[in-house]
Design brief:
The chain has 169 residues and is an alpha/beta fold. The chain is built from five helices and six strands. The radius of gyration is 15 Å and the shape is globular.
């Protein structure tokens, strides 16, 4: 018997999010839930909390991959359905990326940049929404990566990657 696997979409971004990033994240979370996917994030505040809050308004499921060893070391945001404590600090970013069928990066801090790099390294489809622009030593950069102007566009692109109608960058 074959069963359908539920998709998971990672939303990555900083704990300190601007008002615009928070709005993008909330709407991205809402759209991910509408597609019926699980929202995976780092479980903290800022972009992560806003995305989870948006997902919950659309009856979505949320999963937080926490850096600490328990609630006393890393407090999960209140919109998480499932919490996994890794004790891995920022190394938990690899778990977030590899547990996602696609990743949406919204704004971000240094941890977000690491998640972008991990998505590229492991060929996990990635969409940037108001996020990093970086140039490598050979002059190539993130400019060629899929970008979106709105949360709805970012989620739609992520699902086109998942469905295979867009080639993975």
């Amino acid at each position: 018997m074959t069963t359908a696997r539920q998709h998971a979409v990672g939303v990555v971004g900083g704990d300190r999010a601007s008002e615009a990033e928070t709005k993008f994240a909330f709407e991205a979370g809402r759209q991910i839930a509408r597609f019926g996917a699980v929202l995976v994030c780092g479980g903290g505040g800022g972009v992560m909390e806003a995305a989870c809050s948006g997902a919950k308004t659309a009856s979505g499921t949320t999963l937080g991959i926490m850096p600490g060893t328990g609630p006393e070391s890393s407090e999960p945001n209140p919109h998480l359905d499932f919490v996994i404590y890794t004790g891995m600090g920022q190394a938990r970013n690899q778990i977030i990326v590899l547990s996602s069928n696609a990743v949406i990066a919204i704004g971000g801090e240094w941890g977000t940049l690491s998640e972008i790099g991990l998505a590229m390294k492991y060929h996990v489809p990635l969409v940037l929404l108001g996020s990093w622009s970086v140039e490598g030593p050979d002059g190539e950069g993130l400019g060629d990566l899929p970008r979106a102007a709105t949360a709805k566009e970012a989620v739609a692109k992520a699902f086109r990657f998942i469905e295979g109608s867009l080639p993975t960058p």
